[in-house]
Write a structure and sequence with these properties.
Blueprint lengths: L2 H8 L3 H11 L19 H15 L6 E2 L11 H14 L15 H12 L11 E4 L2 H7 L10 E5 L3 H10 L14 E5 L17 E5 L11 H14 L2 E5 L25 E6 L1 H4 L7 E4 L5 E3 L5 E3 L1 H11 L5 H9 L3 H27 L4 E3 L5 E5 L6 H12 L1 E2 L1 E2 L10 E5 L4 H15 L5
Parallel strand pairs: 1-13, 3-4, 3-5, 5-6, 6-7
Antiparallel strand pairs: 2-8, 7-8, 9-10, 11-12, 12-15, 14-15
Helix pairs in contact: 4-11, 5-11, 6-7, 12-14
The structure holds pyridoxal-5'-phosphate.
The site of pyridoxal-5'-phosphate (PLP) has 13 residues, from helix 6.
Length: 442
């Protein structure tokens, strides 16, 4: 047997392979990014999927209602469909065909966003500070490319898991402890006690993820709360990563829709927005990220460096733009008909949220969210662990929700229900909840 063949033979045992590589310098396999091995096995939704399919296999006749994942259920509004059909026809003619577009997005969409989402609210955001993309999930992860690994990152807890996992992937953390918290991240607990709005971090942090309206708690941030964060970022030289994916669900006129409604935020904040939840683009894919030109970071030797050109470079190098057809659909969200139709979609989901809230409250649950957000965040009865509550709801009421502990240690004892569903399913879910818990909660 040749030396190389011998090494491949040894490689059947990964521990021996590692030793072999280090000791003998046989590069018979590519090295991996070992940060991925730090990720907690069984990401929340696959684990839910596993338990639900096991239940369905054992109970093939059960009519399971899924109020778990935050995917929309209603079709795209007609104004959007019409705009996309028109764009498809343009693609079929030599005169109007489009190939590669600008990576940052077509001007027609960037201008519509600047005008409707920002100028109309008094925010001075220029069209060239808006980067159109295929999703806020990707953007909140990709943004890490342009930041130094030594930055201290703060996240709300519970948290949209993408912020944490992408920081683990790039190597900004150590291992996770038993509660699932990674060494090197600063967790900001959000509980009923602080009305799901965390205190400022005790240690200095450089990057802060804020999500409002919040997934999973459904909490919103007042002008005062956001001002507190902007002031912190300005005094500490930190950058806020503001995820406003659920902005359209804000019903309270006092609540800001954009962090740029706070004076000075355009010097310290990057904002993520998406067409997924307001216009039903979860499958269609279109979102945008705002990087104001005034936002600066520093180099290791203390030189100030604007973030905008770095993100522009990253975006144009690693991304080739959202399809013309989809961007025309997104533009139609801002047409008079599009505005009316998306507003009625939001109204529909918020009515679902209200039905769920009222049903839960009527049997004694402590319920949060669901007023300015599509998520209901409830306290489990008698402090029951979140996964036990999940199993009880699945097994006894055939309902699927999301265990709060899956979003972080501070989510233990809480549970998320989503308002993204048909009216019939929501009403049926409430009947089952009332039947199951009507007697259980004192
Ligand atoms: N940000 C938050 C807080 C979300 O909950 C989600 C989706 O559930 C996203 C971003 C993803 O948005 P997109 O569909 O644009 O990738």
């Amino acid at each position: 047997m040749s030396v190389e063949a011998d090494a491949r033979h040894i490689s059947a045992d990964p521990r021996i392979l590692k030793t072999t590589l280090i000791q003998d310098q046989f590069h018979i396999m590519a090295l991996i990014n070992e940060n991925y091995l730090k990720l907690k096995a069984g990401y929340l939704f696959p684990e839910i999927g596993r338990r639900v399919s096991a239940f369905c296999q054992a109970n093939p006749d059960a009519k399971v209602i899924r109020l778990g994942i935050g995917d929309v259920t209603e079709p795209l509004p007609p104004a959007i469909i019409e705009a996309m059909h028109k764009a498809v026809d343009e693609m079929g003619s030599r005169d109007t065909f489009r190939g590669y577009g600008p990576e940052q997005g077509y001007d027609f969409l960037r201008n519509a966003i600047a005008e409707n989402d920002y100028k109309s609210r008094g925010c001075e955001i220029a069209a060239d500070e808006i980067f159109v993309s295929d999703g806020s999930k990707c953007d909140t992860g990709n943004i890490l490319d342009i930041f130094g690994l030594n930055n201290r990152v703060a996240v709300q807890d519970p948290v949209y898991p993408v912020y944490v996992d992408t920081n683990v992937m790039v190597g900004r953390t150590g291992a996770a402890n038993d509660a699932g918290r990674y060494e090197g991240l600063t967790y900001l607990p959000c509980t009923a006690e602080n009305e799901f709005n965390p205190d400022l971090p005790k240690e200095k942090v450089d990057m802060i993820y804020l999500c409002y309206p919040n997934n999973p708690t459904g909490a919103v941030a007042s002008r005062e709360t956001l001002t507190k964060w902007v002031d912190y970022a300005r005094s500490e030289g930190a950058i806020i990563l503001f995820d406003a994916a659920y902005e359209a669900f804000i019903t309270d006129p006092e609540i800001p829709h954009s962090i740029y409604e706070i004076p000075g935020a355009d010097e310290v904040a990057i904002e993520f927005r998406s067409f997924s939840k307001n216009a039903g683009f979860t499958g269609t894919r279109c979102a945008f990220t705002v990087v104001p030109k005034k936002v600066v970071g520093t180099t290791a030797d203390g030189q100030k460096q604007a973030i905008h050109p770095l993100w522009n470079r990253r975006h144009t190098t690693k991304f080739n733009g959202v399809s013309y057809i989809i961007q025309r659909g997104a533009e139609a969200v801002y047409s008079p008909a599009g505005k009316e139709q998306t507003a009625s979609l939001i109204k529909f989901y918020l009515e679902n949220a209200s039905i769920l809230r009222n049903g839960l409250e009527s049997v004694g649950f402590e319920v949060y969210g669901g007023v300015n957000a599509p998520y209901i965040w409830l306290k489990t009865p008698n402090g029951m662990p979140s996964w036990d509550f999940f199993d009880q709801l699945l097994n006894k009421a055939h309902l699927v929700g999301t265990p709060g502990s899956g979003f972080g240690a501070s989510g233990e004892g809480y549970f998320r229900l989503s308002a993204f569903n048909s009216r019939a399913n929501v009403e049926e879910a409430v009947v089952r909840i009332k039947t199951l818990f009507g007697r259980l909660i004192a």
